[in-house]
Specification:
CATH topology: Methylamine Dehydrogenase, Chain H
CATH architecture: 7 Propeller
Shape: globular
Number of domains: 1
């Protein structure tokens, strides 16, 4: 696996953003964010800027990886989730709770935001299709996945039969959505028909999901810290529990962040434990690796992985995995 940077953002009042060289796990120098506690992060496919949201102060920040400087911030209303378009020209944001407006900002620089859709009463997460034409948004209250056109205000309901959907990820070919929930189910959904191809029962709160560039799913339980490898992504999908020592449950707090960050080669999913460590999960073997120690009190939460060639490079796209959470 080629060396790359994992960008870790803390869930603390004065959030820190820190580059980590992986797979070695070498922790670099932190930058103090002008924002508060962070919810999600995403990186441009070019690898030059990282974007992260502040759920407390409802803002979006842009971090330049070349010198570790936060170059722009913008107020985004009540929005917690951010993802970046496949071509790196837009940052999309959607809210968590309260029924938010889907909007985008031009990149780099967080240019003037444009609104192109409002739907749902408790929107949870967003994924962008590989061709950049469609945004998929989960709504906890209605049980829906909404489908937005990114070139117009058109919005349709792709599926309204899910139980409290949360995280969402899209396959590299754009045909499958993996949808996590707060109540023990992970859904495999067709983007062409909206049909539920498979309902998997995993853990208690599998809110965090991702799909690798190789088309393998990952689901992570935000209560227990457990994770599952999901393959194949069709009606025959099976969820296999990861082995070894991963994140532990933490009473009263999320055990892990809301998105895994998946390496562009599809081999490793990184999962933050909201306390001190970031855990690498080998997607091929289903085994937890040696955790990355971010230091006492760091509370890692939001993650994004750079393309292997670094700034200016273009690896197999992280946006397709929802990192990307990455997307």
């Amino acid at each position: 696996m080629t060396d790359r940077k994992l960008y870790v953002v803390s869930n603390t009042t004065s959030a820190q953003i820190t580059p980590v060289t992986v797979p070695a796990g070498t922790v670099g120098s932190s930058t103090t964010s002008p924002l508060g506690s962070t919810w999600t992060a995403a990186i441009r496919p070019q690898g030059d800027y990282v974007y992260f949201t502040d759920g407390d102060n409802v803002a979006l920040a842009e971090y330049r990886v070349s010198d570790g400087v936060v170059t722009a911030t913008v107020s985004i209303g009540s929005s917690d989730y951010v993802t970046v378009s496949p071509d790196g020209t837009r940052a999309y944001v959607i809210g968590k709770g309260g029924g938010q407006t889907l909007r985008y900002y031009t990149l780099p620089g967080l240019g003037t935001g444009s609104t192109f859709g409002t739907q749902g009463s408790n929107d949870q997460d967003i994924a962008i299709s590989p061709d950049g034409t469609t945004a998929y948004v989960t709504d906890y209250n209605s049980g829906c996945v909404y489908k937005f056109s990114t070139s117009s205000t058109a919005v349709t309901t792709l599926n309204n039969l899910l139980t409290n959907p949360a995280g969402i990820a899209i396959s590299p070919d754009g045909t499958i959505l993996l949808v996590g929930t707060y109540f023990g189910q992970v859904y495999v959904v067709s983007t062409s028909t909206g049909s539920i191809l498979k309902t998997l029962t995993v853990g208690s709160t599998p809110w965090s999901v991702g799909i690798s560039s190789l088309g393998v799913g990952v689901a992570n339980d935000g209560t227990t810290g457990q994770a599952w490898i999901i393959t194949p992504l069709n009606a025959s999908a099976v969820a296999t529990l990861a082995t070894g020592s991963g994140p532990a449950a933490d009473a009263g707090q999320p055990a892990t962040g809301p998105r895994p960050a998946i390496s562009t080669d599809g081999s490793i999913a990184y999962i933050a434990d909201n306390r001190r460590y970031v855990y690498p999960l080998n997607i091929g073997t289903g085994e937890w690796g040696t955790p990355i120690d971010m230091g006492s009190g760091y509370a890692p939460f939001a993650l994004a992985v750079s393309p292997p060639s670094g700034p200016g490079g273009w690896g197999a796209s992280d946006w397709a995995t929802d990192w990307q959470l990455v997307e």
